[in-house]
Each structure stands twice: as C-alpha cells, then as structure tokens.
Amino acid sequence: MEYYKMFWQKYSDFRSRSTRTEYWMFILCNFIVGIAIGIIEGMLRLKGPYGIGIITILYTIASIVPSIALTVRRLHDTSHSGWWALICLVPIVGWLVLLVFALTDSTPGDNMYGPNPKGPLSS
Predict the structure, then answer these.
(1) Phi, psi (5° rounding) for residue 111?
(2) Coil vs helix vs strand at 47
(3) 4, 119, 115, 116: which is closest to 70 by C-alpha?
(4) Which among 36, 104, 27 is positioned nearest to 63, based on CA atoms?
(5) Most exposed: 31, 45, 65, 99, by fewest CB within 10 Å?
(6) What gap in Å lies between CA 92 and CA 72, rounded to an integer?
(7) How far apart (Å, rounded) are the C-alpha atoms in residues 45 and 97?
(8) CA atoms of 113 and 77, how far apart (whole Å)
(9) Rounded to two decimals, what is the model's pTM?
(10) pLDDT, tens digit (0-9, with 9 covering 90-100), for 19-70
(11) What's the rounded Cα separation, in Å, for the pair 119 and 20?
(12) End-to-end distance of the chain based on CA atoms, in angstroms?
C-alpha cells in the first residue's frame, strides 16, 4: 500500500526515476483495485451500455496521467527516454519491448535522470 500512496503523491513527476518494485507494486495494487471496482459495479449493477461501469471510467480517467508518469520514471531508471513509452502503440512487439524495459534492473549509480532511487550503495 505504501507504493500505491507514493504513486499518487508523485502523480505528475515525469523527471525522476522509479524502481522496479515501485512500478510492479503499483501494477499489482491497480489490478486489485480494478477487481474491487468490478465486484462493486457488478453487485450494484452499474454497468453502462458497453459493459463498462461509471466507477471504472472515473478511476481510469483519474489514474491515466499518473500511470504514464510512473512508466516514464521507470524508463528513466533504465536510462531510456520517456518517449519509449510510445512503443506500446506498435502491436505486440511494442508491448514486449516495454515489458523488457520494465523488467530490467536499474542503471547503477546516477544517470541523466537523477540519482539511483535504490540508494548510493546499489550496484
């Protein structure tokens, strides 16, 4: 939950770096929140005409910019430009490239995007 709170505190930070743990913990928390929203919408029958509920739409709108910012920070942590996030627009291959970048360990030490978020002793 700490990473989920950190995500919302740094919602518009496109300049620093984020660790793998921070990134993947948000993905996990976001998945759990999505399931909870789906259950609530199912119980309250809040589905719209296309099967998407209003709570899902509102949550998606609220989290789209912070999610992009987190992806950019994760790319910065692996010494890639945030513009690499656009690779996901390439079907299949783009998502795989972005997945590899998200799974790659941090660049040791400082890089052009700031100090290593793991700390000065990480390698």
Answers:
(1) -135, -175
(2) strand
(3) 4
(4) 27
(5) 45
(6) 19
(7) 38
(8) 7
(9) 0.86
(10) 999 999 989 989 999 999 999 998 988 877 777 888 999 999 999 998 999 9
(11) 14
(12) 26
